[in-house]
Structure formats: structure tokens, C-alpha cells
Amino acid sequence: MFQEHDFHYAMENTRIVVPPRSAIETFGTTRFHFSLVTEPLDEVETVRIRSGTIEAERPRILSPVHFRKVLLEGFGNEARDFADWLEANPDAARVLRYGFQFRKTDLTEKLVKEPMDEAVERLREEISTGDDPFGALIAGVDDVWEVCLLKFSMEMIQRSAGDNVAEWKRRGLT
To answer: pTM to 2 decimals?
Structure first.
């Protein structure tokens, strides 16, 4: 079970190295393809690279009362604890005024004998020059890696919210 300081540590030490070029779709499901690079605590000059997909369903306008209805399909107990923490700290979750169901799928994991900086730079180059507008590179913390993915998800919500709300207003839905 994580403590609150674990969440803070993950939030402070997770960075989006390469953000997706596209935002969350206003009227459809969005699938972000991520590579998350972390350093295992028990191995030197080694990184763990987790790759997969995070799916954000079509945004829905919800009041803050509905935070507990956020579903984290495929995530473990630590991610659920994080969602509970967000609900208990509404200032941290102010951006979640409209909800999503997040799913992580197609998860693969591999250990690579390579220093963290070199692995991040190599993957940054691959993703930056690729043709996937939904590709992302995240550097995070190994033992709380799911929280790192949730931070990425929150940042994508923040980045997309203005455009989503503007689109709802243009169509008279707010």
C-alpha cells in the first residue's frame, strides 16, 4: 500500500519527455501509445521500458461529485489508491471535472542494459521522428510506475480540456 509521500514522489519525478502531438479527441476514443522508462532500484545501468496503450474514452461532462466513478480498468490497487487520494484532494483533481475511463492495454515490459539518459535519448529520437501523433515517452519511477501513467493521463486532460470544452460550446452542448 502506498503512502501519500509515494504519490508526491511519483508526481514530482515523472516527466513527459515527448508528449503526443495530438490531444484527447472531443467526440471519440483516443489511444495514446506510451513508452515509460524507469530505473529498477536493484540493477545498475539498467532501465525497464514498459510500452502499451492508454485509452481515453470520449470525454463526458461530470460534476466533481462523480470522481469516485472514474474507472481504472487494468490498473492495480496502487492506482485505485491514487484515484482515492485525488478524490480526497479536490484541488489536485480540479481538472477532472469531466471524466474518462482509462484503460492500459497491450502492456509489454523489457529490461535493457543501458544508462537511463541514453535510453531516454534513444527513445526520444525514435518517437519524435516517428509518424504516430499519439506516441509519448515518459520517464518515471519504477515501483510506482502506474502512478506515472496516471500523471501522464492528467497532463493530457489538462492539455485537451480547453479545446474539448470549446468544441462542446460550439455545438451547444454545455
So the answer is: 0.75
pLDDT in tens, 52-69: 999 887 776 543 334 445
SS3 170: helix
- The H or E element that residue 122 is part of is helix 116-129
What is the reported pLDDT for 102?
60
Q: Which residues pair with 95 in a beta bridge?
A: none
What grid cell was written down for 130? Answer: 516517428
74: amino acid identity, one letter: G
Name every residue whose Cβ is closer than 8 Å to that of residue 28 and which is 6 or more positions away in sequence. Answer: 58
The 10 Å Cβ neighbour count of residue 152 is 24
Composition of the chain by helix, strand, coil, percent to 5: 45, 25, 30
Residue 84 pLDDT class (50, 70, 90 cuts): confident
Q: Yes or no: say if 138 and 20 are a contact pair by the CB < 8 Å rule.
A: no
Q: What are phi and psi of 58, to 5 degrees?
A: -50, 130
In order, the DSSP letters of 89-137 are -TTTTGGGGEE--EEEEEEEEEEE-S-HHHHHHHHHHHHHHSS-TTEEE
